[in-house]
Fold each of these.
Amino acid sequence: MRDPDDALREHLIDNLDGENAHRGFAGIAQDWPSELRGTRPDDLPHSGWELVEHLRLAQRDILDFWQDPGYTAPDWPDGYWPDEREPPSDDAWDASLQQFDDDLATLKSLIRETADLHAEIPHGSGQTYLREALVVADHNAYHLGQLVTVRRLLGAWPPG
């Protein structure tokens, strides 16, 4: 018998991938000029690097919460934002993009494999797996919009 939540799972994954209502992460972060990764446009509080790292760190935090019964939340806001406005190297930028993609793939697998998305996370305080997936999708979409704005204001849009 078909899982009644199959459609919900696929909608969640589509939302995490982007491309329906907005571009996905790769489509926004790819080909970001290295000399602009640490630049904050006038009157905006974050550079591309700060937003990319924040997306990576926040997504990883929820992934850790989902999977780890011994989970401890990072300090807010320090544990969710990089210390520097620019990446320490091109390799650090590339590693951040790759880790975001890898963690997103893991999250999508968990959405597919978790028996009951409506169940409460046993080590949480009432959060469900579905709620956490929705939080990631919402948070990512919000900051992906900011990344587009930063790129536009820096004259680096569209990518490539």
Amino acid sequence: MTDQPMRQIAAELIREKALRLLDEEIPHGIAVTIEKMTERRNGLFDIEATIVCERESHKGIIIGKGGAMLKKIGTAARVEIENMLEARVNLRLWVKVRKEWRDSDLYMKNYGYDPKDI
């Protein structure tokens, strides 16, 4: 049980998988935003999410060679989101660079963080 919206939980699951799979290759300066989350009539969920990082070099690490790392992150997150929703999920991920987003109260709020808590 939680009081968090499903979109926030999905974003945190994706972020968790990214951090676990990337281990210590990038700092914890990533955020995940859910751009779209809709349910089709057949019960399938379409989720589009963006992983936000602070540097171009981090973007390359997150995507990995030929998109391999992004695929691993997406697969691991999709499985857990499907278990949570008890439904099939079509998960699409993108990676964007927002330089020094953690220094911006506006970005922090948009990504679901309270700047006062950090």
Amino acid sequence: MLDFWATWCAACQLEIPRFVAWQSQFGPRGLQIIGISMDDDPALARKLYKKMKLNYPVAMGDEKLGQLYGGVLGLPLTFLIDSQGKVQAQFRGETDLKLIEDQFKPLLRP
């Protein structure tokens, strides 16, 4: 799961605790969440990373990276990518987290 987010995005911060729980629960079955902070200042992302105790990697993104995913015009933006690298689903904006979970569970190992 590839999640574009930013520290100033309230909906993004609401998702993060669930993503942390999913990484713990489903990581052994193959789920790997990767966060992409679209903040301009890496220090802001590091601060939130520590505060929210993220247990998955976060990289810094920019407009060029966003263009590779069709442009990041709003946050959060989450992609479900299967083990072959194919995008299986994408979620723009605030999304029902149960919907995301229902989409990624079939992609996991038993």
